[in-house]
Design goal:
It is a single chain. By secondary structure, the chain is of the alpha/beta class. It has 9 helices and 8 strands. It has an 8-stranded mixed β-sheet, with helices on both faces. Bound molecules: pyridoxal-5'-phosphate. Pyridoxal-5'-phosphate (PLP) binds next to helix 2. Pyridoxal-5'-phosphate binds at residues 33-35, 59, 105, 109, 137, 139, 168, 170, 176, 181.
Length: 248
């Protein structure tokens, strides 16, 4: 295996153990920050004039990228459910998903809201019904408090091949200066993203790639939140998906 694929292999293994995301090295692209992963994924997926769904509010850069790529943005209101979790307006979401892919951050930037299980399952159901992709920017997905459960869209049955998940250590390990991020996607999309990448950034920095084999491998030491918070996060994330179907 080429030396530069080794971090991708390690990351893929760690994603399975920590998040229940079933990925091999062919599903992983290491990027200079998750920002580059987001732009690379959107460039590989979105064509001029395409309709793309964004939560409202949503990470400012997402809309800027979509405008730059010539996409038409449909906003779906972000609401709060009775338990305090984030949820989307399902009627607006269904109307919009008939027309194209969706992009959301989870936890949401700027509100910090975490999408609950009902929202994640509804997005999964609609994505399959209307045969569209969903991009989930999960940069903050280990900054959870009070035992809140996190639901990975890509781990829901039928979503592995329809989800692009963006992750990275910029927030949870305060490593934004390292400029490294991880995009997890179906292999055919990773290939398209590689094509974009080959004319933009080429690679994530080697020094940054080489911190990644240990990233997520030791959950308690890799968290910047308190040890008790990180332990409960790990437990929730892994126990929730213990029964999820896995790709063999
Ligand atoms: C939701 C979200 N996605 C992506 C980024 C980009 O992060 P980085 O490129 O450092 O991984 C940020 C940075 O603030 C963010 O808030």
């Amino acid at each position: 295996m080429p030396v530069m694929r080794m971090p991708a292999k390690a990351v893929a293994g760690n994603l399975g153990a920590t998040f229940g995301l079933n990925a091999g090295p062919e599903n992983v692209l290491l990027t200079p920050g998750s920002q580059a992963g987001l732009y690379t994924a959107l460039s590989a997926i979105v064509e001029q004039g395409d309709d793309v769904i964004l939560a409202d509010p949503e990470y400012l850069s997402s809309e800027r990228m979509l405008h730059y790529l010539g996409a038409r943005v449909t906003r779906v209101p972000l609401l709060r459910d009775p338990t305090g979790l984030a949820r989307l307006d399902f009627a607006a979401l269904e109307a919009a998903m008939k027309c194209g892919p969706a992009l959301l951050s989870n936890p949401n930037n700027p509100t910090g809201g975490i999408h609950g299980e009902e929202t994640i399952r509804t997005i999964a159901k609609l994505a399959q019904r209307y045969d569209v992709l969903v991009l989930v920017d999960q940069l903050y997905c280990r900054l959870l408090y009070g035992g809140t459960m996190f639901h990975h869209l890509a781990a829901v049955e039928g979503m592995e091949d329809r989800t692009v998940t963006l992750l990275g250590p910029s927030k949870t390990e305060s490593l934004s200066g390292y400029r490294v991020g991880v995009a997890v996607a179906p292999a055919h999309l990773v290939n398209r993203m590689e094509n974009v990448f080959s004319i933009s950034a080429l690679r994530a920095p080697a020094y940054a790639q080489h911190i990644l084999p240990r990233w997520l491998a030791t959950q308690t030491t890799s968290q910047t939140t308190s040890p008790s918070a990180s332990t409960s996060t790990t437990t929730c994330a892994t126990s929730r998906f213990a029964d999820s179907p896995r790709r063999s």
